[in-house]
Amino acid sequence: MNDLSRQATRLDAIEGSYDKWLLGAAVSLAGLGVVMVASSSIAMTANPFHYLIRHLVFIGLGVAMAVAAMRTDLKSIEKHNQLLLLGCFALLLVVFIPGLGSTVNGARRWVNLGFSRFQTVEAVKVLYVVWLSSYLVRFRDEVNATWIAMLKPIGMVLALVLLLMFQPDFGSSMLLLGITGGMLFLGGAPIKRIVGPISLLVPVLAALVYFEPYRMRRVTSFVDPWADQLGSGYQLSNALMAIGRGEWTGVGLGASIQKLNYLPEAHTDFIFSVIAEELGFLGVCMVLVLYAVLVGRALWLGARCVEMKRHFSGYIAFGVALWMAMQTFVSIGVNLGLLPTKGLTLPLISSGGSSVMMTCVAIGLLLRVSYEYDRAVRRHAFRMDEAATPARPAADSDAPAAVAPVAARTVAPLPSRGTSRVQPRVEPTFGGLA
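-> structure tokens emitted (434 positions)
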């Protein structure tokens, strides 16, 4: 085996490692979720461990799916970008098929799997983030320079939102719109072009709230939950009482009063209020720090990937970070009375099979991004070391001259692609606000 073959073999043998900060934050949040689901649901059924067992089963399935995502090469996923978009539409349409779709409380959002129901929009969130990441890679320059390239993903998300409004699912619709705007911004689209479509959508969204009585009741109860404490303000008023009882250190794990059939959906939408009541302000701060680590590390990872021209990986990290940040903000904001009531779970903590599993898949994708980024960094360092090592003299004067190491020919930086309005090495431009 010649020197070039040996060098290539050594290069291929270099593997990466998964980001310990991401993994630690995700495992900590999931572990806290198991404890709080057990505590918040203990009085909801005759079997006090019913929801805990169910949550553990879905956590196990989610971990298995996350491991599969962690072991899947991102290039193989990028090749099937069109199938991902088709999958989004198929998942949102399947709920309307008689016999498959399942209606709960007037909303047709679930598919009946026999042993459980699956909310298809949770899978759509994952598929859509990956598809939009591939789109931004393929049309990065056009998105930055032309209207039509930026309006294509907006048209796709509006079509998805239209299907969601027929279910109806206003909360997930807003989440998909927010992810789209954020990823376009981070992908280099000028902020002036993003503001235009948003300004056109705001009146439409306001009309959807105003002309739908139950949405309007949520807005009025959010403004003053005490005006109708036993009616439209029941959820929020009980949530605020739970948070107030927690004070600094909480009433103690398992000692919540509001979870005893006073606070509706204590194990799902309003689990944050139970955390505040039992663990207090210090426990709430711990939760916020864990989410800040998860989201901040994902954004850092995305920026590093884009700097290395690994745009697909970087945009996936950006998309998952935006998803986790927005959903966490809305869920906590609803519990604190800062936002009208929406049916969005607290990622990795709330009970809910579909949400738990798909959030685990998203974390698995993030960890795969971190693995491939770390592997690329190590291989680049190996090439640099090889390039700095002088070529060995030939053992025989009649032998041909030593071939320069491959690294010597590959360490030159690749030409920059796309348009950047800050430093040339940094993409995306974050809207040119540097």
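Residues 92 and 106 are 16 Å apart (CA to CA).
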